[in-house]
Amino acid sequence: MKLPLSITSLLLGMLASPVLATATRRETYKELYRPQYHFSPAKNWLNDPNGLVYHDGVYHLYYQYNPGGSTWGAMSWGHATSRDLMHWTEHPVALQAQGFPGNITEMFFSGTVVVDEENTSGFGRRGKAPWVAMYTSYYPTEQVLQSGKHVRKDQQAQSIAYSLDKGMTWTTYDAGNPVIAIPPAPYEDQYLEFRDPSVFWHKETRRWISVISLAKLHKIVIYTSRDLKQWDLASEFGPANAVGGVWECPSIFPLSLDNGKKVKWVLLLGLNPGGPPGTVGSGSQYIVGDFDGTAFTADPESIHDGGGPDDSVVFEDFEGDESFAARGWRTTGNFTGASPAKGTLAGQNPVTGFLGEQLVNTFLDGDATTGTLASPSFNISHKYINFLVGGGSNLNETAIRLNVDRQIVRSSAGSDSESLSWQSWDVSALQGKRAGIEIIDNATGGWGHINVDQILFSNTRATDNVANWLDWGPDFYAVLGFNGLPRDERTVIAWMNNWQYGAVIPTDPWRSAMTVPRKLALKTIGGKASLVSEPAGEWKALTHGGRVFSFPRVENVRDLGRLGKTLEITLTFSSRQASSAEKAEFGIALAATRDHSQETRVGYDFSTHQIFSDRTRSGDVSFDSTFASTYYAPLAPAADGTVSLRILLDWSSVEVFGGQGEATITSQIFPSKNAVYSRLFSTGGVTSDVRVRVREVRDTWR
Q: What are phi and psi of 25, to 5 degrees?
């Protein structure tokens, strides 16, 4: 006889639950790379956060979990709770894959949890409000369910379960599951990619809303229901903005704009692959708009066409059949007689982010190609020169340069990525000067090439306008918010990993962790509604001690010594303009070794107005060829010319919050030791009015 799921989950969960083995708890949470103030399971694989809900003073975190190993498989829902968003208690598995560990017939993919206060579902008993989880059922085998419904092999469908003990044990709705079996017409053939329902109560229409992804079509479908059992299609949205991979883990929610009376709605979307420029694999984007209880409508300024600023004058887009020479460009080396490339070249990883059909791609003969391209001269007549650039990051070998009076006055390079992203030169001080643009490739080793497209003159700085990125790093995905909180207390958590390398990161006996919880707000920045975020939770109670360093000027390097193991660092300094071709950067290097042979660099590039996080020498980077990279996020200085960075350093992660939180970068690191030695660096000139505040963050596993 088959046990009810609630009993099965409890028994199997008790066998694996770390909280039932307190004698080994201290040892369990001190392994190399174990996060000390981020949630991670005691053992096994974790990915997307699911079913986040706040009720009676307790935060419930459910998550994708493999109870049988440290790679993806046997997808179930793990469960942890917290009262302060900092200290987490792991509980028995909430929803266990049916048939685990033998012949699995149903897995529990991502979804959400709501508290059905009015018992609209009818699951409540003796005055107890039921909790209802809506999730994607994945059926590895073809079968007939207890409800009598037939499902196909590999089908994804939407099902529900309920709990009468505040989310500790669950019973599946076998009499009616799946409640949404297939996508709506005409998308029935998308049953393999129909997933991740996000559910909430819309009080204005007194209906439940579910937002579900048609992953490969880059669409979301919106359903409504009175009872969480019967669902009606209301509308669809998409495609829009970034569509480089599948859309996953959608959600929509309201926020007040600028803490005022005006309310906007935000649509969050996971994208894999096709994340932020300079990254590989996963990313999280958002779109701002309105929701009327039936349909989501995007604000025009939140939708991007991928082009440059509207006031742009095109200097060169590299389209058409003409060679470089016929366009007036002077060529040397392997570029003599050459023409723009039609995208990716032989032996090259996919090139993305360029516009149209052609670009400068110096991978003509692989990385052995060398030479220069020099543009016709022109008069500088706009405030900015914008362009798309990718490829190698060596400014001396693979670069695009601006020459004025035979002097190199500006220079940019890629970020060791085949993805092109926007960069800008501020040339407002060079108005009327005669200038030329030069593209060089003098390198023959790894990343010995450069990609360039869309050289534009504009009075507006170009930014990445393919999407609005919630985080510009590689390790922030499947973000989800807590149901049950007031509207403007929107708190979210993301999976701190990436599908590009998630299964091979060097952690044991667990694999993957969550980001710190973040509170979201909607502010007008640069003329449009933008999401900003800050760490949520009781940070004052978690941090202790503190050291403050103040320096009127920093030039070259200034050592700060050993600071601790887990840190919160606030860094403020004055802005400046680049005055030469040399990179003008300021930041802090956080090292695992006294000689800084293993270090992560976090800072600000004054020439491009970007924050960055560089993990190329952060420790173990051997497990994936794309891991050792530098990541960038656009950030304009504050009105007074200062730049502010808040850095959260744990044993295997760095989270950077720039400005008001409009620019964040999340990345994993795997140093050989947990000690932190630090020093400030200032390249290309002097940085003024530097202030550093450092606080140690307590271990939350005590």
A: -60, -45
Helix or strand run (H / E) with residue 159: strand 155-163
**How far separated are the first and last CA of the chain, in Å rounded?**
42
CA distance 523 to 548: 30
* pLDDT computed for residue 171 by the predictor: 98
| Positive or negative torsion for Cα 402, 665, 563, 690 | positive
Task: Give me the residues paired with residue 268 across strands.
Answer: 251, 286
Compute φ and ψ for 27, nearest 5 degrees: -65, -35
Tokens of 582: 């040399």
The secondary structure of the chain in percent helix, strand, coil, rounded to multiples of 5, reads: 5, 50, 45
Q: Is the dihedral of CA 84, 88, 90, 95 positive or negative?
A: positive
Q: pLDDT tens-digit profile of 129-158?
A: 999 999 999 999 999 999 999 999 999 999
- The CA–CA distances, whole Å, from 280 to 134, 343, 415, 570 equal 30, 18, 12, 28
DSSP label of 128 = B
pLDDT at 170: 98
The Cα–Cα gap between 283 and 627 comes to 15
**Given the structure tokens 């926020």, which residue do they identify?**
255
Average pLDDT over residues 306-326: 91
CA 538/CA 117 separation, integer angstroms? 28
In the numeric block, which tokens belong to residue 675? 């000690």
Amino acid 417 reads S
In the numeric block, the tokens 């974790």 are attached to: 46
Cis bond before residue 634 (omega within 30° of 0) = no
Q: 192: which residues sit within 8 A by CB, 6+ positions away?
A: 154, 155, 156
Strand-pairing partners, residue 477, are 495
Tokens matching residue 225:
């229901």
Q: Are 246 and 193 in contact (CB under 8 A)?
A: yes
CB distance 160 to 180 below 8 Å: no
For residue 502, the one-letter residue type is: G
* Residues in CB range of 71: below 8 A, 6 or more apart: 45, 503, 511
Sign of the CA dihedral 474, 198, 305, 309?
negative
Phi then psi for 117, rounded to 5 degrees?
A: -60, -35
Q: The tokens 């709506």 sit on which residue?
A: 184
Task: Encode 458-469 in three state secondary structure.
Answer: ECCCCCCCCCEE
Give pLDDT tens digits for 351-404. 877 888 999 999 999 999 999 999 999 999 999 999 999 999 898 999 999 999
Residue 40 corresponds to which tokens in the numbers above? 């991670």
Q: Which two tokens stand for residue 464?
A: 């990445």
Burial class (CB in 10 A: 0-12, 13-18, 19+), 171: middle
In single-letter form, the type of residue at position 307 comes to: G
| Average pLDDT score over residue span 320-347 | 96
| Alpha-carbon span 468 to 276, nearest angstrom | 9
Q: Residue 307 — very low, low, confident or very high, per pLDDT cuts 50/70/90?
A: confident
DSSP secondary structure code for residue 25 in this structure: H
Distance from C-alpha of 248 to C-alpha of 197, rounded to nearest angstrom:
10
Which residues have a catalytic role annotated? 48
Nearest to 345 by CA among 331, 333, 362: 362
pLDDT tens digit sequence for 83-133: 999 999 999 999 999 999 989 999 999 999 999 999 999 999 988 999 999
| Measured CA distances, 238 to 215, 288, 350, 363 (Å) | 11, 13, 25, 35
Which amino acid, one-letter code, is at 52? Answer: L
Q: Is 404 within 8 Å of 435 (Cβ atoms)?
A: yes
Dist. CA 590–CA 573, nearest whole Å? 18
Count H helices and E strands in the chain, helices first: 3, 46
Three-state secondary-structure class, residue 504: helix
pTM of the model: 0.81
What does the pLDDT read at residue 578? 52
